Amino acid sequence: MCVGGGLFGFITKPKTSLGRVRIVFVGFIVQLVFYYLVFINFPSDAPANETNKETYFNYKLLISQILTFVGSFLIGLGDCSFHTQLFNVLASQYKNTSASAFALFQLVQGGTSAVAYVYASSLAVEYQLLILVITLLLSTIAFFVVLFSNANNDLDESSSLIIG
Q1: Do the Cβ atoms of 90 and 98 come closer than 8 Å?
Q2: Going residue by residue through the chain (164 aa), what tens digit of pLDDT does each one get?
Q3: Element counts in the chain: helices (H) and strands (E)
Q4: Nearest alpha carbon to residue 77 among 137, 26, 117, 145
Q5: What's the CA gap between 55 and 33, in Å, rounded?
Q6: Distance of CA 58 to the CA centre of its chain
Q7: Cα–Cα distance between 145 and 31 in angstroms, integer?
Q8: For the chain, which terminal residue's Cβ has fewer other Cβ atoms within 10 angstroms, N or C?
Q9: Strands (E), the chain
Q10: What angle do CA 78, 80, 84 make, to 5 degrees?
Q11: What angle do CA 71, 72, 73 make, to 5 degrees?
Q12: Local structure of 51: helix, strand or coil
């Protein structure tokens, strides 16, 4: 899953907050494209049971399979771009307690996955995608807030060292 994201991070080598913003923003856009592909490629009752219901666009089977494989790559790339930058920020912000920070991250991620597992078979695809888009938007905003507050703290510390 993270091969494309790892190559993306290796090629761009973000050293500044602006570089991280670019990678996370690209991941955000790529995941939105994936959610759109799911929306047009799967019928609304697909999570509940097997279905013969038509999708929004009547694609031939080959086109539908191509969209599915392209979407698989896109979600892996988008997810990796988020995770690599998130791990980087966690490791740099919590240098002395990184194990605790990563454990807390895994706890929250596992809890939200459990909640998604509970509603997955009862909600239509559209509502699941709406939940995903809202959480994607909120998590991207939260990442930027943490990243820029960390960057401002680094600037404050370096300026106090210069002045003091």
Answers
A1: yes
A2: 455 555 555 555 666 777 888 899 999 999 999 999 989 888 877 777 777 777 777 777 788 888 889 999 999 999 998 888 888 888 888 889 988 989 999 999 999 999 999 988 888 889 999 999 999 999 999 999 988 886 665 544 443 334 44
A3: 5, 0
A4: 26
A5: 17
A6: 29
A7: 20
A8: C
A9: none
A10: 130
A11: 90
A12: coil
3-state secondary structure of 60: coil
Residue 12, both tokens: 């761009």
Instruction: Tell me how crowded residue 34 is: count the other CB atoms within 10 A of its CB.
Output: 22
Contact between residue 147 and residue 153 where contact means Cβ atoms under 8 Å apart? no
Instruction: Determine the 3-state secondary structure of 36 from DSSP.
Output: helix
- Region of 80 on the Ramachandran plot (φ > 0 left; ψ -120 to 50 alpha; else beta): alpha
| Biggest distance spanned by C-alpha atoms of the chain | 71
How far is residue 48's CA from residue 125's CA, in Å, rounded to a whole number? 9
The model carries a pTM of 0.79
* Crossing angle (nearest 10°) for helices 61-93 and 125-163: 30
